[in-house]
Specification:
By secondary structure, the protein is α+β, with helices and mostly antiparallel strands. It folds into three domains: about 170 residues, tt1808, chain A (Alpha-Beta Complex), CATH 3.90.1570; about 50 residues, no CATH class; about 100 residues, Up-down Bundle (Replication modulator SeqA, C-terminal DNA-binding domain). It contains 13 helices and twelve strands.
Length: about 350
C-alpha cells in the first residue's frame, strides 16, 4: 500500500521543480533520489544504496544491493541535473553492461526512466516506462516506482518480472499500432462486409433512410482509386538527390577534412579504435539492434555487407545509415572513448 507521506513528497517535489529549486545534480541526488528510495523501503545504508558504485575506471551514481554482502547490484541509478537527460541513456547502458545489473534507472528528478538492461534490442526497446513528476498523477508515479524499484520487489525479483511483463506488453501494443494501416488497406481491398455495414449504420444517423449498399461499395472503390493514384505518384517522384559534400571537423584538437559524411564517420571511428585497443570491445555491447548490429567482428552481422568498413583488425562498422544516425552513434562512441562531443578538444562535427 502506498503511504500518504510518499504521495505528499511527490507533490512537494512537483512544486519545488516548478519553483526551480533543484539547481545541481547533487541537489537532485540528495533531495529527490535518496528520499524516493527511502519511501520505497531501501535501508539508508551505503552497503544497500551504494553511492559512486565502482565499475572499473567508471562510476555510477548508485548501485542498489539487496544485502550487505552483495557484490552485484540488482539495479543501477544514474542521476543527472534537471533537464540534462539527452543522450544519457547510452552512458547508462554501458554502466549497466559493466555492472551486470538487470535493471537500470535514469533520472533528473523530474523524469524517471526505468529500463531492463539485459537482453538485446535498441535502447527504446529496453525502456519499460517513464514517469514525469510534473505531468503524471502522484499515485500513478508512486505505484509505478514501487512496482519496479521497491526494496521488497527487488529482493524477490518481482520488480524484474513486472518490468519484463510491462515492457513486452508495450512492445506488443506498439507493433499492433503499426499494423493499423495494413488492416485498413485490407478492409478496402476486400470491401469487407463489416466495413460496409458500419458505414450504412453510421450514415443512417444523418439520414432518414439508409444508403444503398451499392452506393457504399462505390464509395469504397473511389477511396481505393485515390489511394492507388497517390501511391503511383509517390513511386514515380524521383528522390531528392543528396549531393556529396566535404565534411570538416575537429577531432582531439586536430582539424580534418573528408570528402563525404561516410568517410568522416569511418575516419573518426578508426581514430578512436587506434587510440584505445579496448574501444571496440566496450562499444560493441551498445550497438546491437533488433536484428543486426552496427559494430561487430562478424561482417555478416551488418545490415548491408557491401556498405560496411573495417575500422580495426576484424572489427566491422555499418555505414548504411542517415547522417542523423551517424551523429547519434558518434555521440555514443565519444562517451565510450571518454571524449567530449561538440567540443574541438573532443569531437566537433556537423553533417
Amino acid at each position: 500500500m502506498i503511504s500518504s507521506d510518499f504521495l505528499e513528497f511527490i507533490r512537494s517535489v512537483r512544486d519545488q521543480i516548478a519553483r526551480d529549486i533543484f539547481q545541481t545534480e547533487t541537489s537532485v541526488r540528495e533531495m529527490i533520489v535518496l528520499p524516493v528510495l527511502g519511501h520505497l523501503g531501501w535501508p539508508r545504508n551505503p552497503l544497500y544504496i551504494c553511492p559512486e558504485h565502482s565499475l572499473g575506471n567508471l562510476k555510477v551514481d548508485y548501485g542498489l544491493m539487496i544485502s550487505e554482502n552483495s557484490s552485484t547490484p540488482r539495479c543501477i541509478i544514474e542521476v543527472k541535473a534537471l533537464g540534462n537527460l539527452a543522450n544519457a541513456d547510452r552512458q547508462l547502458f554501458e554502466y549497466a553492461y559493466r555492472a551486470g545489473a538487470p535493471m537500470a534507472v535514469l533520472t533528473d528528478g523530474k523524469q524517471w526512466m526505468v529500463y531492463l538492461s539485459i537482453g538485446g534490442g535498441e535502447f527504446q526497446e529496453k525502456l519499460v516506462r517513464t514517469f514525469d513528476f510534473t505531468k503524471h498523477d502522484p499515485e500513478e508515479i508512486a505505484k509505478g516506482l514501487d512496482r519496479y524499484l521497491s526494496f521488497d520487489n527487488t529482493c524477490s525479483e518481482q520488480a524484474r518480472r513486472n518490468a519484463e511483463h510491462d515492457r513486452d506488453k508495450r512492445i506488443t501494443k506498439d507493433m499492433a499500432k503499426k499494423k493499423i494501416p495494413d488492416a485498413w488497406e485490407n478492409l478496402l481491398k476486400t470491401n469487407s462486409d463489416r466495413l460496409i455495414n458500419l458505414l450504412i449504420e453510421e450514415t443512417s444517423q444523418f439520414s432518414e433512410y439508409p444508403p444503398a449498399r451499392s452506393d457504399v461499395e462505390e464509395f469504397l472503390k473511389s477511396l481505393k482509386k485515390v489511394e492507388s493514384k497517390s501511391q503511383t505518384v509517390s513511386q514515380k517522384r524521383p528522390p531528392n538527390p543528396q549531393p556529396s559534400k566535404e565534411v570538416r571537423f575537429f577531432l582531439l584538437s586536430e582539424k580534418y577534412t573528408e570528402s563525404n559524411a561516410v568517410k568522416a564517420y569511418v575516419k573518426i571511428m578508426k581514430v578512436f579504435a587506434a587510440r584505445d585497443k579496448d574501444f571496440t570491445t566496450r562499444l560493441a555491447p551498445l550497438t546491437a539492434g533488433k536484428k543486426k548490429k552496427w559494430l561487430s567482428q562478424n561482417r555478416e552481422d551488418m545490415v548491408e555487407i557491401k556498405r560496411s568498413e573495417e575500422i580495426s583488425p576484424s572489427w566491422w562498422l555499418d555505414t548504411n545509415l542517415s547522417n542523423k544516425s551517424k551523429i547519434q552513434r558518434l555521440q555514443i562512441a565519444c562517451e565510450v572513448a571518454g571524449v567530449p562531443f561538440g567540443k574541438p578538444r573532443g569531437l566537433k562535427i556537423t553533417f
